[in-house]
Design a protein that fits this description.
The chain has helices at about 5-25, 30-55, 60-70, 75-90, 180-200; strands at about 95, 100, 110, 115-125, 130-140, 145, 150-155, 160, 165, 170. By secondary structure, the chain is of the alpha+beta class. Helix 3 crosses helix 4 (about 75-90).
Length: about 200
């Protein structure tokens, strides 16, 4: 792995980290959309830099495995297709959604941007028989926030629904929203940049 490529990848990783922080601290839709787009671009650039650094090197098989995982992992591939759509298309890569007020347990209290309030659904009954199908279900009530959508890459005709799995495991409810998915992606990108750095440092 070319050490210069690792330095470039680290720079893009820092941009991704700043974008996630901006996404978490956003106070309106415009700033959240800008942060989401910045994150998608920075995360894609990490791969581009590592690909260049691995060409013709002993780390080429390692990068091939990362590229394969990006194609097959639901979360990583979702981010990849979202980036392509954002960069080359005109479709929205996130929806403006959420609730202005808490009408569940907050007596109509106004919800802040990006706020989440945990609730539990006591029972879900069959609409015809009244039979209890589910009970004590954890959930969140979201304030105004960006919501994940199915993303489309018009160049390839590929679409991806919001991910529910990552690295072979279900995504926990706490992370199953746009900001949570960004944080999971960021954790993964930190890992692969660290692995690339170790390979670069082992060069003779």
């Amino acid at each position: 792995m070319d050490p210069l490529a690792v330095e470039h990848a680290k720079a893009r990783l820092r941009k991704a980290e700043k974008a996630v922080e901006a996404l978490k601290n956003a106070s309106n839709f415009e700033s959240a959309e800008d942060a989401w787009s910045d994150f998608l671009m920075a995360s894609s650039a990490i791969y581009s830099k590592l690909e260049q650094g691995a060409k013709g090197a002993t780390s080429a098989p390692w990068y091939g495995r990362q590229k394969h995982e990006r194609r097959t992992d639901p979360l990583l591939n979702y981010l990849h297709i979202a980036r392509n759509s954002d960069e080359h298309g005109i479709d929205r890569v996130a929806a403006r959604g959420g609730n202005l007020r808490d009408m569940v347990g907050g007596a109509g209290e106004e919800l802040k941007f990006n706020e989440r309030r945990p609730y539990r659904i006591e029972t879900v009954r069959d609409g015809k028989t009244g039979e209890v199908k589910l009970s004590d279900i954890p959930t969140y009530l979201y304030g105004p926030s960006l919501q994940m959508v199915t993303v489309h890459d018009r160049r390839t005709g590929v679409s991806r629904a919001p991910p529910t799995q990552h690295l072979g495991q279900p995504i926990h409810l706490d992370d199953l929203w746009l900001t949570g998915v960004a944080e999971l992606g960021l954790a993964y990108f930190r890992q692969i940049v660290a692995e690339a750095a170790r390979q670069a440092s082992s060069l003779p």
